[in-house]
Design goal:
Rossmann fold, alpha/beta, single chain, two-stranded parallel ribbon
Length: 287
């Protein structure tokens, strides 16, 4: 498909750093307009400076009323939203058993319910336009779960499921939805500001979750993925006339997706007869 690079208006959550900031920076550089949101809007202004095409809006995505106000502010300033980028989120490192109810709730409040707050606020405008694109930042952990990242993965699995249904619901209305699945990219995601750790540590999980903690500490700021290149691909994604439902980014994501698919196919082949055996007898006889 040939991209169309018409000027667009972006609404980006979590735009003070990482992927959100780089997407905003590149969108402005090519002449698009951007509503950039963050819990600390001064951080966005400090990073991007003053720009006639930039609106900086305070937004804690866990606050539904504030999400509605932020979207309305963008509409009031620019008249439309062409691309909604749900980027705000954080990680949690710890075993399932180590994760407290408060840990889990905080993850879902931001990564899932926050995404829903912003999406519901924006969709009426996209539907009225009859155009637009919802881009939800997931993770390789939204496709393949890993020890120590179970709760985080659960939120990203939720984002994958929501986006899949959303894409089908919006397709007849002229609006697209895509879930982006980055692997390990050289952002601040593994820093304390973006990756929370459970207070509880259980020795029995040293070989699994402990290994994940060591990996995260060792790879921080040495990840293979380049966030500048990821942002470039997100801008290209927004220009496509027929964008994909899923966009895996990063060589590590490609490897994990292929391995997961191979595992699922192998397990399915082994248990296919058992799966089919649970139909009612009248259904089985008709096959």
């Amino acid at each position: 498909m040939t991209p169309t690079a018409l000027p667009k208006t972006w609404f980006i959550t979590g735009a003070s750093r990482g992927f959100g900031l780089e997407i905003a920076r590149q969108a402005l550089a090519r002449g698009d307009t951007v509503a950039a949101t963050a819990r600390r809007p001064a951080d966005v202004t400090a990073a991007l400076g003053a720009h006639p095409n930039l609106l900086v809006v305070p937004l804690d995505v866990t606050n539904e009323a504030q999400a509605t106000e932020a979207v309305q502010a963008a509409i009031a300033r620019f008249g439309r939203i062409d691309v909604l980028v749900n980027n705000a989120g954080f990680g949690l490192l710890g075993a399932i058993e180590e994760s407290s109810a408060a840990d889990v709730r905080a993850q879902f409040d931001t990564n899932v319910f926050g995404l829903l707050h912003v999406t519901r606020a924006a969709l009426p405008f996209l539907r009225e336009q009859g155009s637009g694109h919802v881009v939800n930042l997931s993770s390789v952990a939204g496709y393949q779960s890993f020890p120590g990242f179970g709760v985080y993965s659960a939120t990203k699995f939720a984002v994958e499921g929501l986006t899949e249904a959303l894409a089908a619901e919006l397709a007849p209305l002229g609006v697209f939805a895509t879930v982006v699945e980055p692997g390990f990219f050289r952002t601040d995601f593994l820093d304390d500001r973006s990756l929370a750790n459970t207070a509880s540590r259980i020795g029995a999980y040293a070989a699994t979750v402990g290994a994940s903690r060591e990996l995260a500490a060792g790879v921080n700021h040495r990840q293979a993925g380049d966030p500048v290149k990821l942002a470039t691909q997100v801008l290209a994604l927004a220009d496509l006339p027929a964008p994909p439902l899923r966009l895996p980014l990063g060589s590590d994501t490609v490897q994990y997706v292929r391995a997961k698919n191979a595992f699922v196919e192998a397990e399915f082949a082994k248990w296919n007869a058992v799966a089919a055996s649970t139909d009612h007898d009248d259904v089985a006889a008709s096959r």
